[in-house]
Structures
1.
Amino acid sequence: MSVAVAEKLVSKESHSQSKSLWNHAWESLVSDKIALISMVIVSIYAIVAILTVTGVIAADWSQEVGASYEAPSAAHIFGTDIFGRSVLLKTIKGTEVAMSVGFVTAIVAVVIGVALGGVAGYFGGKVDDFIVWFYTMFSSIPNIMLLVAITFIMGRGLVAVYMALGLTTWVNLCRLIRAEVIRHKEREYVQAATAIGGGHSRKMIKHILPNVFHIVIIQFSLLFQTAIKSEVILSYLGLGVQGRPSWGTMIDDAKLELARGVWWQLAAASLAMFVVVLAFNLLGDALRDALDPKLKGKS
Amino acid sequence: MGKLKVFGKLTLVASMLVSFAACTKKQNLDEKVLNLVVASEVKGMDPIYANDLYSSNEVARVYEGLLEYEYLKRPYTLAPNLAESMPEVSADGLTYTFKIKAGVFFQDDKAFPNGKGRELVAEDFVYSIKRLADPKLQGLGWWMIDGKIAGLNEWRDKYSKEDVVDYSETIEGLKALDRYTLQFKLSKPFPQFLYSLAMPFTFAVAKEVVEFYGKEFLNHPVGTGPFVLPVFTQEKRLTYTKNPTFRKKTFPSEHSEEFASIAKENAGKDLPLVEKLVVNIMKEDQPRWLNFQKGNLDFISIPKDNFDSAVTPDNGLADTLAKKGISLLISPQLDVTYVAFNHDMDLFKNKKLRQAMALAYDSKTSNKLFYNNTAMSAQSIVPPGIAGNMPNYVSPFRERDLEKAKSLLAEAGFADGKGLPEITYDCPNSTVSRQQGEFFMKNMADIGIKVKVIQNTWPELQKKIDKRQVQMWGIAWGADYPDAENFLQLLYGPNRSPGANGSGFNNPQFNELFKKASLMQDTPERTAIYEKLNRMASEEVPIIYGVHRQKYTMKHGWLKNYVSTDFDAGQAMYLDVDLTKKAEDLDKL
């Protein structure tokens, strides 16, 4: 029984004392109107993407709804494309590709970046030298060339896009994590962990990682939007997603259609991309403001 | 509407910026330069590998053959080029003896002693044709002479197993009798033989050059032709200059009535007529269109998306363009577009499946979307204008009929597409090719067949077809010579890849009949067999036919002597540029 009382006491105490970093960040995030709106927009895109994947909406995007190249009207808000398909539905279906590319790519980049960055920063010495050499060399290859090379090797398709973008965008995060881990590994709490016999992996994952995780979150949102933009560029170049609507292929179509005055496909795809990329950028800023301890107290 | 206007303003600003930029870069009007465009990458400059339109046209600027087509004569007629005259043919039609022009020199190149090109001799043709037959080189034009020249197949077979191919061995059917006399002995009648001597595959190369450059020969063309290209590189622009040691060749006087004025105006002029030739490689429609508008290209075929703004409903040219001195030429093309099956796959041995897919393909809409309704729906493989085409024939598998397609698909064992794997469709990587692929995908989806579109560069696609790494692909065939045989051979079993039969269709009945026709001279009986073959080619659905296209060409007023042709290899030497008119017209653009 006495145990229960003590627990209650502790919880009461902590509640009245101070909030955790995460609680704090969340509060400052929701109090920022722009961040809130950005979050709502990103969530809407995510929901739309999930709904198209499951086929709840835009499942019939490939159906003809009218003649070829119908101008926007009340019936078709963004008009129709060359085959008479609704541009609106194609744009919505394109969200699926954009969001999945953004998400998977960001995950791939985070896994590589955090793992390499963490190991380099933590162990230092030869390991660090090697990893620094590796990413320096890697980042000296122009990104778009690397992307093209990877898609040529892996063939065309969604998986190739995931991998190509994931493999080309991790360097920045790796660098940041490495620097942050170097700072943390000499701190008292890590020394304390060493003192009580914590192994390397325990110190790295259990102790250091949570303390550098805010960087991952900020970078994640920035990687996400970079990936969306890159997917559009790849698809525009004919190296991206094949056989399903993507904003990039829509813009690729539009470059011909503009000659006959058909602007709506370009408008729809660009607008969709513009809104989500802007939302992610603003969200990334807000996350940094909320999570980065160095910025605390500054406005 | 509001948006439209804003956009209009934006494009106006953009186009003003573009035109300002254009003003700053003045065109060179001191010398005659032809500015041409190719719509695809060029594979290389070796005649024996020039099996596509783009490469063979480039090869033909530098290299020459025994024969060529009369530039100003229709129907198409062969004329001697490096041959002194048309050959003497023996009574049995099997021996052809050519006299070769004396005083023809290869272009100067460091592969020759002192860098001076040497004289062309009959032996060069013997060497060049042996090269085409060389089993180690795997020339892509071998199908054309396979089994036709006495002793050549034996030579090829003999050395296919050995490490080194011996070119010095004499072949009975391919001999240089003296310095300027060349004799062919055919092993069986080959009525299209002379046509094959006008194709880039058989053009003359020099042994010294081939040996000097080795593998790099592909990039170092040295021929006897009117233009010189020092080095070929995979760039966006190829610049040829006039060959200073080109023999005296004058503008042809033979002509059809319709071209009388061109023949008269140019009578006696030395070829080529221009100093320089710039070939731009532009895969996409819009850069071609915009560069033509700016006067950077002398002629182009009209892109589909600019068609409505360029051509009036009664097939005239829009006023805005006519005012700039631009003119329009419309001419039917000897070609056929198609979607091919890879018959190596067991799946496509199922005839009912092929028929079902053909019936699901909407050729009418495709004609509207991609050819502005100017093309002609292809009922079978032979285009109109040559014997073997049946003008009133309607293929039972041409008009879209979804009900029938679905029931055929069920009979094939794949009701509603169940049990069918996802089928890949390969195409070149331009936007229009992709749209065509998507259109095919959409048509097939209507009967439940899943198709995936894969885009490739042109050389990559050709390689994949040669190596049989494709399932279905969209492509076209343009005539090499005006004979239905050239189209029907696409389906002849023994011609399979790397021959011209990329699909690998192999039907014993068809092969038998084709073999028979290929030995016959141009007679009504042969036409009857051609028609029978053509009908089989339709009913068996070895490939899904698309359209026979029409060429809509726009040219600037300063380009002289342009004549639409199906065999444009070598055309550039006849073209001329009127510099005064160009200066005037450029101001109007």
2.
Amino acid sequence: MSTYLVRRLALSLFVLWGVLTLSYILTCLAPGDVVETLAGQRTDEAALARMRERLGMDKDPVTRYTLYMGNLLQGEWGESSRYREPVWSLLIHRLPRTALLAIAALTFAILTGILFGVFAAVFRGTWIDKALSSITLFGISAPVFWIGLLLIWILSLQFRWLPPSGYEGGDLRYLILPALTLGLRSVALITRITRAALVDIDSSEFLRTARAKGLAPIAIYGKHALKNAALPILTVIGLDLGSYLSGSVLTEKVFGWPGIGMLTVDAIMARDTALINACVVFMAGIFVLVNLGIDLLYGVFDPRVRRSS
Amino acid sequence: MSESVVTSTIPGGTSVVSALRRDWPVYILVLWVLAALLIPEIWPDSYFETNYDAALEGPSLRHPMGTDPLGRDLFVRVWMGARISLAIAALSRLLALVLGTLLGGWAGYRGGWLDLAVMRVVDVMLAFPSLLLAVALVALWGPSLVSLFVAIGIASWAEIARLMRAQVLSVKTTEYVQAAGALGCEPIPLFFRHILPNCLTPVLVWTTTGMAGAILAEAGLSFLGLGVEPPLPSWGALIAQGWDEVLRAPWLTFFPGLALAITVILFNVVGDRLREGWDPLQ
């Protein structure tokens, strides 16, 4: 187990380094002079040169890359050229908002998805199953931002039940619509995989025993079958996290939710190099961490994994 | 019971019916693509000519999806958008297919340090948030049809490379490949003539399944303002522009999204069918 863990950790670190390098190369390739864009048009040559030196832009790309990496290793992530603030403090400031949104969406997705999946499996072949499969097909096909706009139109503009957009210091009424929007796709995916996993183990002997004992279908599926379906469900949640991060960019845009997704897109548009790199590495870091965590959870849910490795 | 036995013994007619029942999503998808090609050509309105006398009209027989603030017919703009979105999605999948097949396949075939290097690049690409990569590339090159499909293709080749490599690893050990090698077939012809064709089925299926994701990616980019240049319409941009007028004309937001959702549903259904046909486990 421990050599496996060390190898996984090394690979994760390598992946993060690769993401950072790719992001760095991309920001270097941007056409035009970043310093001139920053300084504005009517700046004289001397001021431009001073600014270039201050930002380290007077050196060649390879030297800059080495310096940048050295600074990162010392915990120095640089300053956002747009906000004139250390990128870390920007990220830390925005993190709780995106985390709140993601956790709310994920909770909604897991609870609803597993519930729907169990229902679809228990009532397999009936109209309930068919209705749920149509809903999930729509859920994975309709674009996140369009669903968000429809929800705003119906619930905020027509019925005036919820505020259409904004953040307002974490007021929970502002959280409901973005969380529903962001979670919807995952609800569909989790419903599908839960149903498939439950149907898969339907003919196993321990379920026959549970039925022979006379347990109610809900107890059979909810307790005995679901535990054995946990692995594929976990895998799907982990794999889907990538689309979750992308989805949060669009969801935050639609609902004016000032989280990390919005911060990143704004940084890309404003060519805020240090901020782009930090945001991208941050998102990739979450992706890598969650997948690492899920790999470790396999062992918790399935003793065979623990023993074999 | 007896009925099904009777119908299955009648040759001809019933097989057409059962094929129609089985493959209807494919036929609808073909019709859908034909509509995207034909409707912008034969529709009386053009997608770019403005007519301020007919601004913001609701859906009617003349304008089935209403008109936008510049009086342009939304119906023809949605179908023109279909053409653009489908073209970008298909070209990006083609690019991802070529990149993924060659890089993943060659890495699996040669093995060694090349395999190691390519697969680590694949790991990095899979961890890089794909929408953000596409956003960054389009922002870098400026929005155009070419930069959109290249960006989406580059952001999505890694999965195909991983699948292709796994295929090559299993095909490489088959007897016919060993035999071709023993008969003195050079590595490059061996790869392209004997290995590649026998790996392609699952890779092609996966490429088709990915059309849904490519269409959604294009829509997301154009929703963020990184779509093709106006007056060319694309679904994401139509939704974003429609939203500006949501209080007066909600249909401008509704119809482009509906067209987008139906298209993605069709690709998802067809992709599922293809996968069932390929995967013997299902």
